[in-house]
Amino acid sequence: MSSRRSRISEEEMDELIAKLQSLLPESRRRNAGRVSSAKLLKETCSYIKSLHREVNDLSDRLSDLISTMDSNSAQAEIIRGLLRS
């Protein structure tokens, strides 16, 4: 791997920022045009943190659900199948 980093043009950077902005639900709703890169990156970090919290919450809920199920039930088998996928 080369020690020199490839540089991207300002146009490419603008395109990447626009793509990132389109992925954030808050930015899509606001649709207020161009936002500063710093603000967009902060929003991105906040969104990723909220997704992590949601995943952890869903994981906890799934664990609770599985622990209350009969391990031979059809529901337990469906969940096991989904987790293997």
UniProtKB/TrEMBL annotation:
PANTHER family: TRANSCRIPTION FACTOR PRE (PTHR46446), TRANSCRIPTION FACTOR PRE5 (PTHR46446:SF28)
Protein name (database record): Transcription factor bHLH135
Domain of life assignment: Eukaryota
Residues of the BHLH domain: 1-51
One Gene Ontology term of the molecular function aspect: protein dimerization activity
UniProt keyword Lyase, yes or no: no
UniProt source species: Apostasia shenzhenica
Family: Belongs to the bHLH protein family.
UniProt KW keywords: Growth regulation, Transcription, Transcription regulation
UniProt GO BP: regulation of DNA-templated transcription; regulation of growth
InterPro entries assigned: bHLH_dom (IPR011598), HLH_DNA-bd_sf (IPR036638), PRE (IPR044293)
